């Protein structure tokens, strides 16, 4: 029997690689002759580089870059085995987890390091760059990233502005003519799983700002500053991006990516395409996927649902393992052959997180035993 095991991470407990390895171990214990293809998945957030490197091989490149607070930090990105594709994870250089809670003030956090990672990748001679936008701490509209790439932003006195969101209101002059020309010569694809515009009630500031540290009385002002900055950029490049779905992703980093010619795409679809998921599924008997929590939101482009739809197109049935099944999951039976919550019985979230490895292994083993009986008939 041939399996593709392609889980997302179980956030707060295990990475996608760890989950995939546990399921593989359980399947092989009950089916020693099975072929198990572990393909850890991600949607552009934390763990994206690890998933890519595990699935298609390559190397992790370590470097020093500007972190979200403006200080130098150690970070990394992936260079895939073809030597021509880089994978950059925004969470690893401008992520919320990199900022101590006491310093979470998006007005003084920057995406400058993202631009430095892009430049480092260009120095390797890559032809393609994949950027995962999830998990950012910032709300600077990509101002920092663009400055690192060479774009010039000046205030009314002709002085260069600081690469922080607090500088957005001061931007009066924009010049993309100073950008590193190599960025226009590569294919930049961005994993983005939100469709928020840059500004307004559904924009970056109002929707994501509070969870990053913005106070309620700051939202209107910051949103207006972001809109003013965006209008300056759009006037210079003579294109409109701020209302594009996904422009508000990662505190407006989606907007900045669009302005340099990048394409915003479904994270799950982009990762699946890059690792050759459809070809893997065509030769499999089963797909086993998983996530930390399954509910109605799973229908809206989350990794397991996207993979299950893809598997259905290939004629491969899908089994879902989840930390919990909540709400009305009936519509999910359209793509999942079966769905399994991993807890053995009533337990708190803390208990489930603490026992995640054993729970996932045991559930996968029981699924394998059931499939084995059916297979031997």
TrEMBL record:
**Highest taxon, organism lineage:** Bacteria
Q: What is this protein called?
A: Glycerate kinase
Query: Quick check: keyword Cell membrane in the entry?
Result: no
Q: Which Pfam families match?
A: Gly_kinase
| MF term (GO), any | glycerate kinase activity
Keyword field: Kinase, Transferase
Specify whether Ion transport is a keyword of the entry.
no
Please report the organism this UniProt entry assigns to the protein.
Novibacillus thermophilus
Entry similarity comment = Belongs to the glycerate kinase type-1 family.
One biological process term in Gene Ontology: organic acid phosphorylation
NCBIfam families, alphabetically?
glycerate kinase
């Amino acid at each position: 029997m041939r399996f593709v095991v392609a889980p997302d991470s179980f956030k707060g407990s295990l990475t996608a690689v760890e989950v995939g390895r546990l399921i593989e171990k359980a399947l092989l214990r009950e089916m020693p002759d099975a072929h198990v293809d572990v393909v850890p998945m991600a949607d552009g957030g934390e763990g994206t580089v690890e998933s890519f490197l595990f699935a298609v091989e390559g190397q992790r490149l370590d470097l020093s870059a500007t972190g979200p607070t403006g200080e130098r930090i150690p970070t990394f990105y992936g260079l895939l085995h073809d030597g021509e594709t880089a994978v950059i994870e925004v969470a690893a250089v401008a992520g919320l987890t990199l900022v101590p809670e006491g310093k979470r003030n998006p007005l003084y956090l920057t995406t400058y390091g993202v631009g430095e990672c892009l430049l480092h990748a260009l120095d390797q001679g890559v032809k393609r760059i994949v950027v995962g936008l999830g998990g950012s701490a910032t709300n600077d509209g990509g101002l920092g990233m663009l400055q690192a790439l060479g774009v010039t932003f000046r205030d009314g006195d002709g002085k260069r502005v600081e690469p922080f969101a607090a500088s957005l209101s001061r931007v009066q002059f924009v010049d993309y003519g100073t950008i590193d020309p190599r960025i226009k010569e590569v294919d930049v694809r961005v994993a983005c799983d939100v469709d928020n515009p840059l500004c307004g009630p559904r924009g970056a500031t109002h929707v994501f700002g509070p969870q990053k540290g913005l106070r309620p009385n700051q939202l209107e002002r910051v949103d207006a500053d972001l809109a003013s900055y965006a209008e300056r950029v759009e006037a210079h490049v003579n294109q409109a991006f701020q209302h594009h779905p996904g422009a508000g992703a990662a505190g407006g980093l989606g907007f900045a990516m669009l302005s340099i010619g990048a394409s915003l795409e479904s994270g799950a679809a982009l990762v699946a395409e890059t690792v050759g998921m459809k070809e893997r599924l065509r030769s499999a008997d089963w797909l086993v996927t998983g996530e930390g929590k399954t509910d109605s939101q799973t229908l809206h482009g989350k990794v397991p649902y996207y993979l299950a739809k893809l598997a259905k197109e290939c004629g491969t049935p899908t089994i879902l393992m989840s930390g919990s099944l909540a709400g009305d999951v009936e519509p999910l039976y359209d793509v999942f052959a079966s769905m399994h919550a991993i807890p053995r019985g009533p337990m708190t979230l803390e208990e489930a997180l603490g026992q995640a490895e054993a729970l996932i292994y045991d559930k996968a083993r029981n699924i394998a035993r059931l499939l084995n009986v059916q297979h031997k008939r």
